[in-house]
Amino acid sequence: MLDQFAEYVTNLDISFFYFLNIQLKNPLFDFLMPLITQLGTQFFWLIFCGLLYIFGGEKARNAAFLCLIALISGYFFTELLKILIARPRPGEILSDISLLTDMSGYAFPSGHSIAAFSAFTILGIKYEHIYLFLFFAGIVAFSRIYLGVHYPLDVLGGSLLGIIFALIVLRMEGKIIRTKNKIINKYIN
């Protein structure tokens, strides 16, 4: 029974992958998705949070710091899960896909989705525009499927984990900010 359910979910995941990767294929998305997917990279978020920290006020500095904590935690957790689960990427198993970017490593969970959802969730809550920020994170997650490097369940799992990491960090916000301020006061001031 469990094997049949797992097979059903896997087949549904593959069917949905083909729909998003092949059926929605168009020149506009072929141009936009490689750009949008960059909003899920660690490099983008390090630069963004660095600029927010340097040029923002106290609220922006705290939001940037919280994002970095969530991103770093999420990155290490993602890498551990990828090794433990070892799910091959679609391009390693499926034929006739549209692969629009390089792929390496394992598929589950999507690191881009975890990064986008953790940072955008924190920013959305701190700046009170959660739906707008979650929309941006969702577009990043969609881009990973469209580009051919993740299945829908990879990005769904990454998205949920990103939100969880954001909520954990926000729950610990007071302690995190106090610790940050102590370190800054001790070593910088």
From TrEMBL:
GO molecular function: sphingosine-1-phosphate phosphatase activity
Highest taxon of the lineage: Archaea
Transmembrane segments: 35-56, 63-85, 105-123, 130-149, 155-172
Keyword field: Membrane, Transmembrane, Transmembrane helix
Gene3D superfamilies found in the cross-reference section: Phosphatidic acid phosphatase type 2/haloperoxidase
Cross-referenced InterPro entries: PAP2/HPO (IPR000326), PAP2/HPO_sf (IPR036938)
Protein name: Phosphatase PAP2 family protein
